[in-house]
Here is the input.
Amino acid sequence: MQQEYIPADIETAVQQWWHDQQTFRTVEDPHKEKYYCLAMFPYPSGQLHMGHVRNYTIGDVISRYQRMQGKNVLQPMGWDAFGLPAENAAIKNKVAPASWTYDNIDYMRGQLQRLGLGYDWERELATCTPEYYRWEQWLFTRLFEKGLVYKKTAAVNWCPVDNTVLANEQVVDGCCWRCDTKVEKREIPQWFMKITDYAEQLLNDLDQLSGWPEQVRAMQANWIGRSEGVEIKFGITESDEVLSVYTTRPDTLMGVSYVAVAAEHPLALRAAQTNIELQTFIEQCRQMETSEAAMETAEKQGVATGLMAIHPVTGELVPVWAANFVLMGYGTGAVMSVPAHDQRDYEFANKYGLPIKQVIEPTDSAEYDLSKAAFTAKGALINSQQFDGLTSADAFNAIADFLEQQNKGEKQVNYRLRDWGVSRQRYWGTPIPIINCPDCGAVAVPENDLPVRLPEDVVVDGSGSPIKSMPEFYQCACPQCGAAAERETDTFDTFFESSWYYARFTCPDNDKAMLDERADHWLPVDQYIGGIEHAVLHLLYARFFHKLMRDEGLVSGDEPFKNLLTQGMVLKDGTKMSKSKGNTVDPQALIDQYGADTARLFMMFAAPPEQSLEWSDKAVEGSNRFLKRLWRSVQEHIEQGEVAELDIDVLSDELKALRRQIHQTLTKVGDDIGRRHTFNTAIAAVMELMNTLGKLTDNSEQARAVIQEALEIAILMLSPITPHICHQLWQLLGHDEAVVNVSWPQVDESALVQDKVELMVQVNGKLRSKVSVVADADKDAIELIAMADENVKRFIEDKEIRKVIVVPGRLINIVVAG
RNA sequence: GCCGGGGUGGCGGAACUGGUAGACGCGCUGGAUUCAAAAUCCAGUUACUUCGGUAGUGGGGGUUCGAUUCCCCCCCCCGGUACCA
Here is the structure.
């Protein structure tokens, strides 16, 4: 009597069994190869979304596969629990961010467990607990003593009506999301970490990351943006001031027709005191959003400051302009402008009627037209006095040397990377462990006084962080002189917490230290999995933190993540699922209706992990259908009773072919899961095998033996993807040991041997026929057989054969004239 | 704007190293089963075709015996853009 496939029953039972057996509890084992698999931990937003299901299923499939390879697999899970949404929810629902967050964690933990993910829950952590954040406070104070953190003013988005700082996300079309007021830029003092001190390492160590996608390494390299150039000093007339500019094209120095400074540049601010037009312009720039996209796409505008700069070589005077495209945060906040050889300068010069002076001409016959566009390629110098005739490369050095001798400039390596501003004027985050004393200045909170606890019993109303109006939080004594002082009320950027959680998972129970020797046992993470949207920021900050922790003696490697898999998004109707678009699909409903195995199978089958995945209700049904067929196939097989021993010497050709397919599939699936991570093609291969099996009409003893082999191998291959149904079917096939503890099957090489192969026959690159030849046929024999083929003859008769190309095992191409 | 990725049947995708374009799945069509439906099973399914073939992987050009794959130019979509996580 056949059992029906009821996923909910099977899955609950199997999950209970894993729980009882402590299947996924992991302890360090010196006798086994370790494998640390980590999927980016979620923000506890309230419920899982499809992106989570995809992310964690990928991690679980890899973890289970590696376990079948005999490795000691660590797969932990936790919560990136600080962040803005908790404050928004607090305002909306009048509930404290802490309780909202903890409730969400409890609910989402249940959802993850229902998906059958093999986590070691004993290592669970939440970043909003003092047990976690105390250690990053501790690290920050260490870095403070080392001089790796500092305070300076930086621009934020400011809403003048709500009197609060806005995240870029809270700025909609340049206005506050809540009151629609025009957002302003405001400069306020903030803490920065000197990531630029590590720029060179962060760039160079990308070479160690051969297990990372090339595109992510490229993005990080571009983000760090190392450039070699020259810092050049321009004098300012009627003053002793020096205006430094940074350029990567010193060869164009003689073509400078103006100098542009950022609106917030001290020189512009000073000139504005006596210049109404400039004042207005700076005011306008203040109304710009702080995001790079907004800055760069805004129309290029400027105002002359009235100041004149002195050219360091010729002594000529060139005007100083304030311009909205010059960023105060990059280089020196000032650039020299060479309209003839830079497109942005060119457009700006045309707009404001500034001179365009050509100083570079091509060394080849490249065409250019300065009346239409700038000539931006390198070449040879003209109109450049003593530097005429030099190539751009030679002129780079000649001009740099000249300036250095004159004390008017020097070569410099510059990075696009800016120091990391970690201050947030928000409540729901880790308090910055600094005390501001009127006499001693900024003082780190002593180790004994850590953690600085964030009060959790608060009311958030949108008018700014509640701890900023809690004297009981911020009033304190200076740890150095004992005078009355005030605590920082800003909190850390939440990227702070997510920059080291991977390490804490190795020793989450240690209450004496940030990390212990277990960190070096498990790190680096062997496989890290997360969204491509994290390609730069999170992954760069985590790499930076790893190096900080290394230099503190906490870990010994240079890099945290050996292999990286960047998963694509889950889309519906071609766009990202989002509440605002109303195109979300709740994974819970999916699990409730079809079970976790179907959800997992669909996620793995619908697209390769790195590509975006288009949601489809119908395709989910298809995945479910396959599992039902699989279930039935096993049931029908076992109903026929005992299976005889397989004797490979007596098999029919059909059964030999089936065994070949079984072991070809096994080879492919192992490669697809283990190396390529293309779970979709792995599943397709198993489906093909099952389709072949379904067509088999032979029900001899030996056929049943081969079917048993096929089903066993199919179940083992699918078990990392759909572990619950496979657990059950494995038992039905007569095994006592649980499938989760079984090793990956061995390929029988002898089954793969083939005596005949099919070759494609092309004439002039077009497929004309197929021929079957013995596997070890030589080129001449293949040629003869192909030429003799009727269909081929038609296309080659009466024609001169120019060439014959034979690709062994694949095809033969006959090239004829005419 | 800048950086990165993508574009293949009606749809999701496959083709891994330049060698059978469209595996596998969905959908659709026809059939079987059924009182009927659902479910299930079987067959077919790129377009055009004089049934020999021809065209075809966003558009245009190039390299090659052979290009979805390599090169050049262009178009469109998506991600990131430093205070969303």
The CA atoms of residues 138 and 447 of chain A lie 7 Å apart. The first helix of chain A runs from residue 7 to 21.
